[in-house]
Here is the input.
Amino acid sequence: MHHETHTLWISRILFNFEDISTLLNKLTVLPSSTLSQIKNLRIGGRALFLAPGTFVHRREYYSHVWALKFLPELSLDRLTVLGVKDGKENYNVLDDLIKFGHGWRELNFISQDSSIFGFARLDVNASTGAPLQRKPQPSYWNEVLQRQDGADSQCSVTIYRSVESGAPGSVMDPKRRGIFEQEVNLTEEDPTQVPSFGRDEDKQLMADDEVAKEILVVVRRGLNADISGLDKSPYKGADMQKWANGKAWRKIKSEWTLPDAKWKPKAIEFDSYSDGDDYRWSNDSKQQASIT
Here is the structure.
């Protein structure tokens, strides 16, 4: 009996990682039978930056979805991502996860503020090299998900926004948040020009008292959606496996440096908390949140 039940605890706890490299260091060495039992995982929102050898001035950017490709056996009930204080990076990470993600039934993306839906068009997207321009949300992401999972699959993207400014954790309380939706009048758009929506900063949303309101994006895959990551090809987007040629994470890490290591805390912190879902936001703009 003990042999059959001694790993049941794995599916009942939250696995929390501050960054992608730490997650890969710990989980890529586990057997697939163990990985498949993990059901609740949380990770910081900063993307992974790699530099070849010691040449730290050249950095390759990889968002979470491409790092998780190294863990195809994951079958999470919930993946939670705690964003960074950079709306453009948060949007890019979340956009990749919705379009190319695998290994989770539900995704919760928590943003420290509302800039994820208010930033101006970015000429060069770090992930693809193409421009990054916001789409009206959640309607656009719902369309993407329905194309993947089916219009009748009950897949959904729902956005919640805190009603309180500068109140960490408030967006997780149903009594302190509301539904957030962006609308655009397509009849006013000129199809020959760059769409006006997302081209400029949303001044109302980016106002001081408004931008400081937390955002929670809840993404639910369709009932019969295939969330497995066992099919590793064809590679899409900025997939590390395009150039890794089947190399394991341990080998990649030995050949490439992690220039973002300077953003990690210099000392180990021991937190005191009563709820594993609690979090706090760092005052450092280059750090994301951690457990309280």
Observations:
- Residues 72 and 229 are 4 Å apart (CA to CA).
- Residues 14-185+194-226+233-284 form one domain.
- The two ends are 36 Å apart (CA to CA).
